[in-house]
Every structure is written in C-alpha cells, then in structure tokens.
Amino acid sequence: MTRLNSVMELRELRSMIATDSDNGKPCLVVCAGTACQAGGASDLLRIVKKYIIENDLFDRIAIRVTGCHGFCEMGPFILTEPQKAFYTKVDLDSVPRIIEAVLADEYVEEFLYANPVSGEVYHSCDEIPFFKHQQRSLLAMNQKIDPIRIYDYMAQGGYEALESVLLSQHADWVIQEVKKSGLRGRGGAGFLTGVKWGFMAQQDGGGGKFLVCNADEGDPGAYMDRSILEGNPHSIIEGMIIGAFGMGATNGIVYVRNEYPQAIKNLTIALRRCHDFGLLGDNILGTGLSFDIQIVKGAGAFVCGEETALIRSIEGHAGEPRQRPPFPVEKGIDGKPTAINNVETWANIPLIFRIGARTYSKSGTAGSSGGKVFSLVGKIKNTGLVEVPMGITIGKIIYDIGGGPSGKQKIKAVQTGGPSGGCIPARMFDLPIDYDSLAAAGSIMGSGGMIVMDENTCMVDVAKYFMNFLKEESCGKCYTCRKGTQRMYEILDDISKGKGTLADLDLLEELANVVRDTTMCGLGQSAPNPVLSTLKYFRAEYEAHVKDGRCDAYVCKDLVGAPCAAACPLGTEVWKYVAQIAAGELDDAYQTIRAANPFPSVCARVCSHPCESQCRSGTGDKQPIAIRALKRYVTDRADPLLFTPKPLSEDHDSGDKVAIVGSGPAGLSAAHYLSLSGYQPTVFEADDRPGGMLVSGIPSFRLPREVLDKEISALLDAGVALHCNTALGRDVTVDGLFEDGYKAIFIATGAHKSRRLGLEGEDSKGVLPAMSFLKAFNLHGDELARGRVAIIGGGNSAIDAARVAVRQKTVDKVTILYRRTREEMPAFEEEIEAALAEGIELQVLVSPVEIFTENGSLSGVKVIRNRLGDRGADGRRRPVPIEGSEVELPFEKLIVAISEHPSVMSGDDDSSSIPEAGSSGNLLIDESSLMTSREGVFAGGDVVTGPNTVVDAIAVGKQAAQVIGRWLSGEEPKAPRRTLLPDVYIEPVLLDEDEQAEADRPEVPEIPAAEREKDWSEVELSLTVAAAMREARRCLRCDLEFTQPKEEAALVQTTQGELE
Amino acid sequence: MITLEINGLRASVEEGMTLLEAAKFLGFPIPTLCHMEGLSPYGACRLCVVEIGEGERTKLVSSCTYPAQDGMKVRTASARVVKARKMVLELLLASCPQSKVIQDLAAAHNIRQQRFRQEHEDCINCGLCVRMCEEQMMAKAIGFRGRGQDRSVGTPFDIKSDVCRLCGGCIYVCPACQLRCTYTEPDKAICGGCANLSPSCLEKPEFDDMMCYMNPCVDCETNKD
Lengths: 1060, 225
Prior knowledge:
Largest sheet of chain A: 5 strands, mixed
Radius of gyration of chain A: 35 Å
Strand order of the largest sheet of chain B: 2-1-5-3-4
Number of domains of chain B: 3
CATH topology of the largest domain in chain A: Rossmann fold
CATH architecture of the largest domain in chain A: 3-Layer(aba) Sandwich
CATH superfamily of the largest domain in chain A: NADH-ubiquinone oxidoreductase 51kDa subunit
Shape of chain A: elongated
Helix content of chain B: 10-25%
Largest interface: A-B, 36 and 37 residues
Structural class of chain B: alpha+beta
CATH topology of the largest domain in chain B: Ubiquitin-like (UB roll)
Number of strands of chain B: 7
Number of strands of chain A: 30
Helix content of chain A: 25-40%
Oligomer: heterodimer
Strand content of chain A: 15-25%
Number of helices of chain A: 43
Distance between the termini of chain B: 58 Å
Strand order of the largest sheet of chain A: 7-8-6-5-9
CATH class of the largest domain in chain B: Alpha Beta
Structural class of chain A: alpha/beta
CATH architecture of the largest domain in chain B: Roll
Number of domains of chain A: 7
Radius of gyration of chain B: 19 Å
CATH class of the largest domain in chain A: Alpha Beta
Shape of chain B: globular
Largest sheet of chain B: 5 strands, mixed
C-alpha cells in the first residue's frame, strides 16, 4: 500500500474499495467484542476457521470478526450475510450445521434467535425487537467492520467525511456545520460541541493546540465507549482529524483506561494504518494539515474522566480537578488550548458530515439532536448496548428493546448516568430521554449507563453502593466531597442495618445538598444524585428501613436475616424447619412450623408461599426450594398433638371478654392467641360452621374438609367460645356487643360480595356471582352449574369456581374468559396449570360486552377481543378492545369472578356505631394499631384489604391479638418490631454426590388429570421421603451467615478475650 | 481593572484577583481554612464558598480559587452560602474536634453540636503543609498520596525524606494536627501555649494527648453519657 498524497488519491482508493468489496460471497459475522469473548467467541472463531480450512471453503464463504453489536446477552453469536440470520448463544458443535445452511442459503431454525415469551423465530436480525426498535447509526457500523481493517471502514463510507471537509478548505465551515448539527457532548454534561469548537478555534495556537478524546469510561455497568473504540476506532480518528482541521489543532490524544486492552490494541493498529496511508502525521493528504494522535493510558481513576483532572493526568500529575475558569479551551495541557470530547461525540462527527448537519439536527429532539448509545444492564432481559434517537421514552427502551424484566419481579426503577446519576421510578417511564428532561427528573444523561432495577433491588442499598464507590473514587481534594461521600455512606450503612433514625434522613438530605453545592468538579457536584433521587422517589423505602426495620427488597442483610423467614407474614422460621427436615427431625420441624402458625396443614396446602418468591435458591435460572410442599410433608407425618400451645403471658390473666366477628383464618387466629394471652374470646360466625373463606371459598379437592375441621377444632377447644348463625348487623351489633360486656371487638368478616360486571341481564337466571356459586356448593352441596359454563375473571376465585364447576355432574364444558393474557393473570400459576390439565378452556384477551337471554334465562354472551395497550400504574398492560371483533358465544351458565369486596353490617345497626368504611365497603383502620374509627373496635383481613391470601389473614389475626391485648392492658396498641435474625445453629446436612446431580425442585405429585374427572378427592399428594430430604438439603441455608456452632462460638469468644 | 458587584456594592478591582482577594479588599470577611497568603490558592476546605450569578442560575464557588471577572455578581453571605458553610464546619468538627482553629470557626458560626459519628482525626487534607513545603521551603518533601477516603499527606513510602530539613513549616501552618499545641510533655511542645490552660477533657482516656479550647466543648457535649 502506498501513502496517499492528495485528497483525490483518497477518493480513488475509496471508490476502488467500494466497487471491489461487494463480491456476493456469503459471510459469517462473528462478534469478538469483550462481552462475546468472555462468552466464548474466541473458541467459536477457532472452530469456524477450522471447519472452513478442513472443508476447503475459502472461495465460498467469508468470515468477518467485528467489534460489539450490542446484543451482549446473546453472545457469542453468528450473524450471516446476506441472509441476516442471527444465531445466538452458539454452541461449538452447531457450527458445521450453521455453515452448511449458509452455503445452501437455508436456516437452522432451532439455533435462530427466538422470542423468549412468544417463541416466535426471527429469520432476519432486523425483525428482532431488540434491533427493530433501535435507530442504529454508530453501532450499525460495528457489525460491518473488522476494526483492524481500514478498508472495511472505507467500504462503509469511512473517510468520506474527511474528504469532503478537506476539499472544502474552510475551517470556519466545519465549525458552523458542527454548530448547526446541534450536537451536544456525549460525555454527560451535554455542552454544545460546536460552541466549544468555536471557542477553541479562536484561541491562539502559537504553541500548539490539543484535541483529546476522553475514553476514561469508568461508570459501573457502562461500556458503550469501549465498544466504539474496539469496534470502530477509525470513526474516532476521522472525527479527530476533522476537528483538527476545523480548530487548527496540532496534537491529538486519546486518553483511554488501561483496563481496555482490546480497545488499545485495535486503536493502536488503526493509528498505525492511518500513518501508513498519510492520514495522520505531517502534511496530511498534501493539504498542509499536520496532526498526530497518541494514546495515553490512564490508571483507572474514575475522577480522571473529569476534564481538568484528565489534563493533569496527561501532564503526569495525580488526577485532581482544578478551578474552571480558566477552561481547558483557554488553558489546558501544558497551558495550551485543549478541546476535550467524549468518544461518542467524536464518533458522531464523521456521521454529521456524511449525512449533513441539517439532516442530523432533525433527528432526536429540539434541544438534544442525534442519537445516543445506552448501555442497558441490570434486571433486564436483553442486556446490551442500544442506540436510540434522543427523545425516546425510558419505557420504550426498557420494555420494547430491553424486553422487560429478567425475572418474575416487576421493574421498579432505572438508574441513568452511572454513579453520579439518579434513579428514575417506573411510574415516570414515559419520560423522554434527553439532557434536559433527565436533569429535571434529578438524574443525568451521563455517558449513557442505564441500570435497570426490579423489586428485589433495595434503593437504600443502591445509594449505599454508589456512595461506597464514590467515597473511594473522589480525588479527595474538596473536603465536602471526600468527607461528604464518606458521611453519606456512613448514614446509609446505618440505615441499612436498622440503626438509622428519621433525623438521619433529614441530615442525609441536607448533607447531600451541601455536597452538591460546594464541590469544585462535576464528580462532587453530581455525587449526591443517587442519594437525592432515591430519597425523592423512594422515601417510603427509607422510612420502612428506619421505622419498621424492614427491607422489602430483602437485600439489607441485617434487617432480613434469612429471606424466607422475613418474607413469611407469620415470621415462620422457614430455614429452621427445612434444616430440621434435612436432619430427619420431623417432630422438631412441626414444632417450628406450629410455633408461628396455628394453621400448619391449611397453609401446607393453600398458602401463597411468599417465602418461595424470596428464596435465594430461586435466583437466576434456578428454582426456589419447594417450601410449601416440604411443609405438607411435615404436617402429613408429624403428630399435631406434639405441640401444646404455651400461654403467652402469665402475669395478666384479666379474663376480659373480646368479641371476634368472623371465624375465618384471621378471626380464629386472633381468638386463639387472645385466649393464650389470658383473655376470653368469643367468635361470632354468620354461617352455620366456622372457617370463613377456608370453608366457603376454597374447594375440598385443594383443602380436604377433615384436615380443615381438625385444625379449626384444635383452636376452638382451647378456651374459645363460638356462636354460629350469628351475623353482625342482623343478630348482633357493635353497640350491643359492648353492652354485653365485651371490652374489645375484632371485625374480620372477610370480603364475600362479588363485584358486578355492570351489564344488562346480569340478574337473569343462569348468571351467578362466583362467591354464591362456591358457597352454595362448599357449604350446602348444591351443584348450580350445568351445560356450558363460562367464568369471567383471572383471579384465584375464578380458577376455583372453574375447577368446582368442571367437577359438577351436569357440566359439559368450562371456559374461563380473561381480559388480558395468561401472563397477567393474578391467580397462582400452579392453579392455572391444574385447571388447564383438568380440561378447562382458557380464552384470553376477551371481555364480555353483552348478555343474551331467552325467556329470562341466559343463552349466551357477546365478547369483544382485546389487545394489550400501554402499561398501567401497576406495570401490567391494559386491555384495549379491538373494534368490530365482537363474537357471540353460547353458554348456559355464567359465573362472574371479577374480584370480591367486603360488605359490613348492611343490617339495621345504628349507622353511627359502624366504623368508617372506604368506597368499596372496606373498613378503614390505622395500620399499626388495626383500630377502626371507633375506639375499641379493631378490624383486619379481607374486610380491610379486599380479597387477600390465607397467610396474610392469619398474620393479621396474630397481630390483632397482640394489639388488642396491649390496648386492653392500657399500653399503646402497636405491634412491636419483630427481629428475625436466625439465632440457633443447626448442623447443615449436605447433598451427597448422587443427590447433587439430581438436585432440582421436585414436581409435587398429584392425582393424574384423567382420574380427577368428576372426582372430589384431594389433587395434590405428599412428597416422598427421598424427594423431601433431597429438597431440604438443597437449601442454601442463608441462616448460617448469622449463626455458628457452639464450639466455634466459644472459640471466637476466647480469642477475643485473649486479645483484650 | 474590572468591575464587579459584591453584596450589592459595585467596585473595581485589579484584573487577576481572586474573589476572595476582591472581597477582602472591599472589606467583606470570608472565613478560610486552607488559604494562606504567600501560598498558592488550592480550594480544598470549601469554607470560603460564595454565591455567584443571578436569578435561577446561581452557584457556589470557592472564592479563593475563582478569578474575579467583569460584571460578576457575588454574594459572600447569602442564606445558601451560610448553610453550606455551617455544614462544612459541622463536618470538620465531626472529624477534628480538637483543633482550635476549627473550634473557633465553629463558635463564630454558632455551631455547638455536630450530628455525625464522632471521629478524632488529625488531618483535614487542607494541603497547607504540602504547599508550604513546596512553595516557601522549596523542599517538596511531603505530598498527597492515595485518593478519596484514603488520601493522606506524607513522604513517599513513609520513609523520612532526604530533602526534609525539619524546618517545622508544615507544623506551623497546620490548622488541625495535634503536634502543634497539644503535646502532653510541655517541654517538647512547640508553642507551649497549652500549658497555661485548664484541661477540660484530659480526664477522658481518648483525650489523653489533646487539649480543648471550646466552651462548651462540642466533643464533650456529644460524648456526654
């Protein structure tokens, strides 16, 4: 190759390459960006090359090794050209099949990228949602270019911009064009690049002028600059040469951190090639322009990304910012004018000159033109780099491109701009992304890091993490930055350990504001952002830590202990009984369960098991421990008589009478614990037997009646009086109960009233609310369903109703109609599975619009199809009816199961005595004391919350007993903060080798679906001994972090003693 | 000469002056800690912050480093400035409660309590000693090491420096370290001033080698059980 001596020679070379390059040979594009290399791209390349050599395919197929494409989640991958087939997470063994398919112009369907939700297979990478919703200008180049081949870059229009600039011969024009483009610095602050260039051009360059490319990218989780440097170094070089021409600069420096070896290597090669071609050095292309670029490697100090610190670092000093003014454009490196731009800013320059400043300025928003590369990481399905036009909403990036949350938890917030950025809550996801709107929301654009957080992320912990980072990365010059970040970390650490106070929150905020105000450089000024933004949007979370000692994300170790126990509303020491099962001590395990839960066998069957959702075994692709199945295993085998409830307090045996209205799980638990505390509870039940929703709502094939009856009668035996067929408002009143000598009243009447559809004909024969249908059968054995049955709704009562209906004798077919998709159904997943297995049909995305009747009884329903629209406040997508898609479906029975609501005391009670209720009939209470608007009247359970889980009802019953006890003895009616840290050491039993191999969550055995037809026996069976032992031993034993064997504890104490 | 407005007073000052110099020239006091005439301005302690700008676009800058510019509007004691200064002093007091300089400054700003975890450090990294050593003593024996919370002043590798002449200049300018006036053996103390004061804190073990000048003492208040 020869040195190019004029611009025309460059033009000739470029046109030669352009005609030459397209030879029509299929090409395998393999990404060798750092992420893909970590995923095995080097091995993949070796195998691909080996296969091509062995089969002598040189003439028929080409390979291109490129930089990062952005879809790092899926690496290593092969992209084929011209097909654009996208094979993800390529296994080395599948290489031959892929190569053969490319040669034959075919596809290997099973290796192609498939939508993880719908399973749809995409034949072209352009159709993949991750790519489809982006607007890729910079990143698109990456996949077309082998970064070490300058010809590849030229073939894609590289150096065309330089050519036009040099031909124009007007430095002013360059500055004007950049100004016109509206480009703002991509490093984060967003200063107008053209304005900076203009200042720079005006400086006297007598002693030389410097251009710097700032590649000191140090935000945790952000790597877009690295990908551009690695994948397309020539775009930066071209941008800088154009800059040198426009600003009259003589020296260029790329300041890149030493941790980016691949970027340094590719850039070094690219610089050498430019020298060879005469694109850098003296008299570039014979135009008289002399400009050279050298690489300066930074040692990885975060603060060196700040421009004045960067200058000092280049000069050989410690990276420490200094006062601006004077600005670097006046006084920079060695006192000479210096223009510093970010990698992405430089990469945008050739683009602007290629497409024209006017076109460029039209993309993006008015104040922020062009596109921006973001690095999308965290709890998101599609981790990677995304390039989008400015002004796109956060929601679009996260849900459309990012594919939504990676796990089952909802996305809670996104942190933009790295350690100096802020957290933006999910409710603000329709915020358009540009410099100004992000700043207004309390965050910054930063260099483009975007960390997605879900419900398992604790915002206090996030702020603490960033403060920890910043207290180490602050240069330490400004006292408020050095000490301020330390102090903020200290306070946050206290809060995360439950040692914080509300005054600490105010101090934290005050300090954060002062740090922002008083520090010299951008690092210190933006350092408080993580604290301020989380305090602004998630103050409730801070307060939960401080006031209740609760970390709802189950992150802060000292507040959570073992997450399973922390997640249990009853505070069951789950880890303990799982460990006891593993050790074979079933009786002890039963004691552990029963100590916290008066309904062990009931919960073993119908609990919503919040413990399992927080189980650490269940993070990532793994399954949580089958805790509910293990509980069932224990309760089926242990003898309940082993447990004798102990009186809770011996000192105040007051004998005060307490009335409990409602005998559901909440009422019975309250009665049980009140009786243990020395009170005389009397339970009033409106129906003819106790149990509430347990007996009237939950069908017997999920909760056999003999199991339920046994547990209820065990509770009633112990000093609790019961009056059935006594309803509040009908048979007794609040005032009457007080007159009868009851000192306190606990109302736990549940939510039994089904919501109405609001359609005409809803009261005709054949249309039934789900609760009436379930009660009729569960309490009286009346089989009200017949023929074709439709159930409307997607919650647990809809599924229960469907499963009861399908078992009734005269029923032909049961169909569930739900307005959203199965993913959004609130019912338990295993219940939906069971219903489908039992032959129940599930129709999703339909809503009823009209009810047809014949002679006063139901004949059919007209439904309309929906599609999913925008996300509502709860993160679920709203159903939107599709016009003209109505269909008529014939049914003999319609069961409406669209939630229930409480209805208290509709009788003839004096209205002044009724506690205050909310709009949907739910009683209003003070959350910590459970007290209603009426002194001495407490309430809890579904009557307050609306339909809720059994375990929450039991928990509120326990709490009620506690607060009522305290109130009756004249104390403040507040349940004390519970501490849950594990305190007993239980020797772990590890899995042996054979067990290790099979260790996975066991399938809970069930009666086969075929045998369940019209059969009422319990569907779920108990785990086998072997399966239960294996599962219990699979537990990660989070408790061991807090406990130690006695000998060790003794040892620690003696050593401590000796040291003292 | 350039014209600017400080606390509403229009005045002309020499070009090249810092805001601190300009304010002092006009008679507006600004507290400082890391600033000393004869040493180059550094901007480490952030005590000398003033508010510049107008309307919504105001910001705080350290007056010791910020050059006076034509047409500037400066406020040396606005509410925002005072609030920030008080917090800086509170932070200083939380780390270096035994320094007389800091105690005096805190007292002058009516700060009698600090709300952080009490520390007892003997350096606030103000850099006076480093600049003294380099600029006045022409020695460059000491410098800053590390960054962030690990930043400290010392000689390279903590080995006694060959260029150090034991001139004591570093100790002379130090506003925080104990060596200057709290030496427990009076004959070895450099200034000896402490011998004339009644030691209010000495009974507490952690104050064995310290002396306190403040009344009421912030640290004693905080540690009162």
